Every structure is written in structure tokens, then in C-alpha cells.
Amino acid sequence: MKAALPVAMLVGALAVPSLASARQVSFETQMSNYGGDGAYVALYLTDNAGRYQRTLWVAGPKAKYHKNLRDWYRAAGGTAKVDGISGASVGAGKTLRVTLDLADTLIDAGYQVHIDTAVEDMKAYPSEVVVPLTISGANKPVSGNGYVKSFRYAL
User: How much is the pLDDT for 119?
Assistant: First the structure.
């Protein structure tokens, strides 16, 4: 029992700095009035070499349609686990808002936020939005080239 206390203290001491080095990042994706069903949307990160790192959020409940989010689906190996990071599809003219804790080491380190979109019986837009995750890019709206009217993030 006495040996467990120093181990627990060490684990706690190591955990505190990692919690302190994360911040809440809010992502806001405003959809255009494209006139179709709800859009499936994947938000994900790539590193400075363009390699997939992590899925941030997936909007769209039916896994069988995730393959239409082509760049994300391919990068994630077609088997990305989205439990706890998914929700309903996003309707035309609606806004998807997601707030997550991200490590400070991801900011200004060459990471990029990607957004893939797809709508049933309409065109899919892989990597419709690609923006660097930087302090200087925060709160600056970016237009998509498909269903995304604008996207921005706040640190």
C-alpha cells in the first residue's frame, strides 16, 4: 500500500501538465442553402506531411454513407471509430458547432483541419475545406467549394 502512494503521486504529477497544455477549440461550419438532404461532414486533422492524424467530428449517423466522405474515409483506413465524436447530419443553411479539447502542440505546428462533405444523390466534396491550425488563422472565416458556406475556428 505504501508503494502505491508514490506511484499514484507520480502519475498525477505527470497528468497535470498534459491537462494544462490543452485548450478548447470551437469549430463552426455554416452550410450553404444547397437544396438537398442533410449533409454528412467529417472534420479531421492531418500533420505537416499531409498524413491523417485524428478524426475530430463526423456529422451523419449511418456508417454506410461514411465512404462518401472520400478523403477522410481513405485516410482513416475506412474503419475510423466515431463513437462519441459523431452526431446528426447537418441540414442546408444550418450550422454545425463542435467544441473539443486539443493539445497546444497541434497549434502552429503544421497541422491542418480538413472538412469533407457529401449529400445523398448529390456530389461529394473531399477536402472541401483545408486550413492550417494556427493562432493567426483563428476566427477568420474560410469559404468552402461545395456545401460549406463558411468555416472558422476559435481558440
Answer: 97
